[in-house]
Task: structure prediction
Amino acid sequence: MIGPGAGLVAFRVAAFVVVFSGLLLLIVEPGTAQFVITCFMLVMGLLFAALVFVLVRLKNR
Result:
């Protein structure tokens, strides 16, 4: 699966995407294309973090 070191790096990337897309949601106007893309990036970051978490947990078993 994925090693703990690579998992940590991937999780940090996912956290970066989630944090900054969450902050951008506070700034961007709802109803614009930027808002939709920012929401999409937030969801993708959360899914990526969940996937990394599952893969690291499977590797540690």
